[in-house]
Amino acid sequence: MSSESNIERDHVPTVPLTTLPEQHPAVFAESFNTGSPDALARVYEADAVFVPRPGVRTTGAALEAANADFLALGLPISVRTRHTYTVDDIALLIVDWVIDGPGPDGKRLRMEGTATDVARRGPDGLWRYLIDNPFGTARPPVEAGGAG
C-alpha cells in the first residue's frame, strides 16, 4: 500500500471555525457535509448537549453517535440563520435547516426544522455549539395511552 493512500485514508477534513457567531451554522453545515464525524465534532464544546429528537438530550459519546446517525443518511444539510442574539461570549441562534435527497433505500427523504441553538465563544475566540437543538420548540411525541 502506498503512503499516499494512507495519507488520504487518515486525512480528516477540517473546516475553519469562525469568530462570528452568525456564521457558526454555516460552519456546522460545511462540517456536516464533509461526512466526517471528526470534522463535525470540532464544532461542539467538549460538554455540549445535542437534542437528536424532541425531548432527548445527549452528550459526549452519545452526542457523537446521534450525529453519526444523521451523517449515515449520506445527505447534505443546508442552513439559513434566521436570528442571532449575542451577549458577551454566548449566542442564541435560530436556524432553518433542511436535509433532502434520496435516502439509503432510494426513496426521497426530507427532514427539516428550525433549530434553537446556543453557541459559546471559546478562549481562542472561536464559536462552538454548547446546545444543538435542531428541532427547536417541537414537542416530544405523546406516549401511547398518555394525555393528548
Automatic annotation (TrEMBL):
What GO annotations for molecular function exist for this entry?
A: hydrolase activity
Which positions, given as ranges, span the membrane? none
What the entry lists under Pfam families is as follows: DUF4440
Q: Which UniProt keywords apply?
A: Hydrolase
Q: Which Gene3D superfamilies match?
A: 3.10.450.50
| DUF4440 domain location | 28-128
What is the protein's name according to its record? Hydrolase
* Organism per entry: Streptomyces uncialis
Q: What is the lineage of its organism?
A: Bacteria, Bacillati, Actinomycetota, Actinomycetes, Kitasatosporales
